[in-house]
Amino acid sequence: MPADRFDRATPPVAPTSPGLVVDEQGRGTFAVAAPRARAVDLCLRQGAAEHRQRLRHYDGGLHWDHVTGMTPGTRYGLRVDGPWDPGSGMLANPRKLLLDPWARGVSHSSPLLSAFFPFEVDAMLDRRDEVPQRSEVDSGDSAVWSVVVDDAFDWQDDLRPMVDWGATVLYELHVKGFTRLHPELPPEQRGTYAGLGHPAVTGYLRDLGVTSIELLPIHAAMDEPHLTRLGLTNYWGYSTMSYFAPEPSLATAAAQQAGAQAVLEEVKTMVRRLHEAGFEVILDVVYNHTAEGGGDGPSLSLRGLDNLEYYWTDHGVPQDVTGTGGTLGPRSVHTMDLVLASLRYWVQEVHVDGFRFDLATTLGRDDRGFRADHPLLRAIVTDPVLRDVKLIAEPWDVGTGGWQTGNFPAPFAEWNDAFRDDVRAFWLADRAARERTGEPGIGGVRDLATRLAGSSDMFTRQDPPGLPEGRSLRAPWASINYVTAHDGFTLRDLTAYESKHNEANGEDNRDGTSDNRSFHHGHEGELPPGDPRREEIEAARRRTARSVLATLLLASGTPMLTAGDERGRTQRGNNNAYCQDNEISWVDWRRTAAAERLRATVVRLLQLRGEHPQLRAPHFLRPADPEQLDAGQIAWFDETGAPMAHEEWMDPARHVLVMLRPAVHGREGAEHLLVILSGAAEATEVRLPEAPWPQGAAKVLLDTALESPEDLPPGPVGDRTVTVAPGGVVVLGIAP
Hints:
alpha/beta, Immunoglobulin-like, six-stranded mixed beta sheet, 16 helices, 22% helix
């Protein structure tokens, strides 16, 4: 192509969207959305020197120009000249080097520095003056720079696993926390993307039986001011700096040293290897706020470009429905364009299989509140790239009307907090209340049954009128069933603590929820080795953990496990370990007998789920017809074998529930499943249902009274009665 084709005197064709578009020689166009900026400079870093190029053209909110020399590895940034009027939310400061919001790579990970703030701050990063004064400190020498990368990669015929929703088992993990202490990883790969793709890790996950790996955020991030003051970091990563670039600190030291290209390729290699092992990769994404926080935060990118365009403000005052001080504005077309382009990039170029949207209610807000038909949500579910990947909403935020579980449009699935709360209430909070007062607590069999059956009370309520009976726009898989997640107690801590112990977070134990719905089984925390109660209490805790896992993995819906729960991981009572990048948060891989037995229980439960398709019914369940049982039905009984009566559902003192899931007709080896759940304080004799219910020989498939599924005695149940341990679950298979 002739060189004069790109002469700066020749106006190029205007780009229609932001970003850098160049050929192999680094020639093309660059554009950035900043409608209120008077001028934008593109700054190139060459050694210690910075070369600036004014973007001369402006169209439709985009500042743009022709560029040359933008080859892979080039470091660049932006400087903005514009109004300085903090009272109106205008914070342009040309002394601040800003990230390109569409950059695919960043130069390095950085702590939060005072030079990054648009106004003057003191040593504690607090604003010096009530009326902010524009900072005259230039951030160029300390800033994180955007880096040009080459998206070409050898995917080696990579294929997406395309796991059907009905077969999906989610496993939430942190890249560093899951691999940092893994003894079978090479030391240089521990805590990294490369470590997560290592055969020692993928083999463990395959043996466990999960299908889809949900990664805590891996977008490039930066710590918040209050954590910097405390000498802590945002370990979880919910403090996004760039929606395209991966976080460098999670890459190997060699990749970090080599630069942004190597970091991106390590991420892609991780995805490819997880796919080769059969796993989907789901990214936790944070499009509701950024590392720039609220009005007292730094200018890293969007705030310095055009604060009013990208953030939700009211007459210049930041609006906070996220609990972080600020909110990304889903009303702006430029913000929506950024979100959609970021999602498409991770699907098309990094081959991820879906997303979990943090505080997703925020993405559907306008001035009147949440709308399921919000333009951004509609754009996501109808986008030709995004509509075929898994979409998971965390269906709440902290604003008015923020709780929206069950209200997101299909094909979104949603974290089901009611499942979490009701399962915890039955197995933990109710038992804790009875131990303290002798009176029934908050957990009842009615709510537990609703969650076991797929939560149709929540996921069918948005169905339009006129649908045929039994039909819904959604399916049970839309309910992401979970009992623990990254925030809150681990499963082990649910059984060992009733109060949070977050002192290590530096906020005098004020942070984190106090609504834990947990049960310490008679002692707060770990018991000393010589305590005479230790063996009994620890055995009860382990049994409760197994029963909770059985409830989770045998319920209708999509189960999600939290990494390490299958090994009894503890956070020592910390229920908000977002800032603990240490052994509090990292998975403990020591092969203790207790850890291996609990893991074996999870493996067996997932085998049962895979072997019994009635547990994965594609439609919401109907009451069972004793004359014609099929896998789309469900039936409930009490401990006498009689069908549950209306008054029994209302009885707060009832702690035993029997669930029948009929077999799939015509399937070889098909069997009915009978699941007995007992929150009673004493062992309970349960009689199996009488005719016309199943009469075939019943065999015990799982008993949470046993430390390991390998301890099951052989042979069928002899006299049609089963003894269920206090706080226990027994699963029986019955031939049709």
